[in-house]
Amino acid sequence: DTEVTQTPKHLVMGMTNKKSLKCEQHMGHRAMYWYKQKAKKPPELMFVYSYEKLSINESVPSRFSPECPNSSLLNLHLHALQPEDSALYLCASSQGSRLATDTQYFGPGTRLTVL
Amino acid sequence: RKEVEQDPGPFNVPEGATVAFNCTYSNSASQSFFWYRQDCRKEPKLLMSVYSSGNEDGRFTAQLNRASQYISLLIRDSKLSDSATYLCVVNQPGTYKYIFGTGTRLKVLA
Fold first, then answer.
1. Which end of chain A has fewer CB atoms surrounding its CB within 10 Å, N or C?
2. What is the pLDDT of residues A2-43, one digit of tens each?
3. Bridge-based pairing state of the strands B60-65 and B55-57
4. Which of B31, B50, B96, B100 is the best mutation test for A, with the most CBs of A within 10 A?
5. How far apart are CA A77 and CA A64, in angstroms?
6. Residue B66, CA distances (Å) to A18, B6, B29, B31, B71 in order
7. B89 vs chain A: nearest CA distance in angstroms?
């Protein structure tokens, strides 16, 4: 089973709202990722958690706040977003070994619209 | 030079055709290579990992050329359902960073 789940599937929010995106995997993976993807562009890495610790923050604005409550869960807290933050937000996970065989599996994404 | 480069296409091919995509990478120390398929408004799905010896899965064949630093994906007997964007992904060695190419759009025509 290579399933990563994400909720919600769609989210519409105003610029003053606070919302959270959720991601879950039960593959025993120890690395989890948040990506942002705009139309006709490849995914852009935002954050990486490895063994529940933040490993990579790709200079993401503080209005995006990641959280990894345990090895299976990854959240992305959103506050005071801008319309240009509208995008598909993808979660992924991998074993976390950093070996050549470490492979990422993606969730179905949350399509976010900021009004 | 970009770390991972792909021809964005689109490649428009008739059903039954054979089509090949290349992807070049700049870091000669890279060890992990992948092809993902992404349908419109969906998530990337792993198509194949690419091994040194090359690998085949049905109509799909992936090859790695370390000397010239590129990987390739060959699709034989194209089906309408193969229409998608194909993303080349290369891991930055020893890190959790996966570098994505821009993707190559394939449209298989009836």
1. N
2. 699 999 999 999 999 999 999 999 999 999 999 999 999 999
3. antiparallel
4. B96
5. 6
6. 47, 16, 10, 10, 8
7. 10
Q: Cβ of B41 and A88 within 8 Å?
A: yes
- pLDDT for A1 beyond 70: no
d(CA A72, CA B97): 20
Using CB atoms, pick whichever of A98, A100, A109 lies closest to residue B96: A98
Residue A34 CA to residue A92 CA, distance in Å, equals 7
User: Letter for the amino acid at A38?
Assistant: K
- Quote the pLDDT of residue A20: 98
d(Cα A32, Cα A91) in Å, to the nearest integer?
Answer: 7
In this structure, the number of other CB atoms found within 10 A of the CB of residue B30 comes to: 20
B41 with A111: Cβ contact below 8 A: yes
Residues A40-88 have pLDDT tens digits of: 999 999 999 999 999 999 999 999 999 999 999 999 999 999 999 999 9
pLDDT tens-digit profile of B82-94? 999 999 999 998 8
Query: Alpha-carbon torsion B89, B92, B98, B103, what sign?
Result: negative
What pLDDT, on the 0 to 100 scale, is given for residue B1? 77
Q: How far is A66 from chain B (nearest CA, A)?
A: 16
Distance from CA of A16 to the nearest CA of B (A): 26
Contact A108 B42 (CB under 8 A): yes
